[in-house]
Amino acid sequence: MWLLFLVLIVVCLGSGKVGVWVAAVIAVVLALSSVSKGTGMIWPWPKREPRKINDESFPEWSDGSADLGWGYLIHARIVAEDWVLSRWGRKAASWYAWVGLLIALLSFCSFLVFEAEALFPHSRYPQMAASVLLDVLFIASLGFLAFSFKKAKAASAKSAAGVIREELHGEVVLLAQWRTFCGTVPLPYSFWRYARGLLPVAGWAYHHFVSDGHLLALTAVVGVAMGYFAYVMVDLSFDVLAAVNGVEVCPCRSSFLARLVWESQFLFQRHKPLWAKFVSWMGI
After folding, report:
1. Mean pLDDT score of the chain, rounded to an integer?
2. 26 touches 224 (CB < 8 A)
3. Which among 51, 48, 75, 53 has a CA at the least distance from the CA of 64?
4. Quick one: which of 5, 84, 142, 283 has the most CB atoms within 10 Å?
5. What top-level branch of life does the organism fall under (predicted)?
6. Measuring CA to CA, which residue among 98, 72, 272 is closest to residue 172?
């Protein structure tokens, strides 16, 4: 949503250098925000100050023994990781993560090239570099998606509903503990977790069919989107490598546990939209 808001701002400001600098400032702010969110991901997690509820002091979690509910979420994260790895296989998951890091590098380079193209519109070198780089990124992204279709899945792997109800005591328990400690995960956000994978395709299409050297601010915005996609792929690859190598991460930022949480919401509502059925069929 913030990308659409940024496009709207650029349209209002015009296609000149003002829009370029606005996009650049927002890119810096987002980068600093992403770095700040990265703290505390790996054990030991930072302790939190006690909070007061109804004039009583309730110390929040600092480790798995601090609260039974938090211990349940730690167990749920482990179960979620084992469930995903049982479907992918550890070796395939490791390759998946390293290819994701390669795509992140290509996407970050695309961000730099788009920004150079916006700042130096009369130079042909950024455009030439963008053509080659985006073609490679486009092919790599399609290969990454094809791997999700082609990879072998263990026939004995349970369904998400089976894991939630047999190992995590049901969707109501999982949703209650997640909302208590981590907050809510709205379903549109769950959809965006997967829809943002189309960003490199959008960047490739923009460069080949829309960019004409005059939409400088919009070019800068597309560059910011590519930089954001680089962060997404690093975050995804970090989660996979952490699961493969047994690195403990905070349950509230585990994409594997979040995957079971939105599945629990569909089970609770007794309705699963078409996009979620497609993602489940792919095995991600």
Report:
1. 77
2. yes
3. 75
4. 84
5. Bacteria
6. 72
CB 16 within 8 A of CB 216: yes
pLDDT tens-place string over residues 75-89: 999 999 998 888 888
Tell me the C-alpha distance between 185 and 179, whole Å: 8
- The verdict on pTM exceeding 0.85 is no
Q: 181 vs 19, 39, 74, 168, 257, CA distance in Å?
A: 40, 18, 11, 16, 13
Write the Ramachandran bin of 271: left for phi over 0, alpha for psi from -120 to 50, otherwise beta: beta
CA dist 60 and 240 (Å) reads 28
Give burial (CB, 10 Å; 0-12/13-18/19+) of 271: exposed
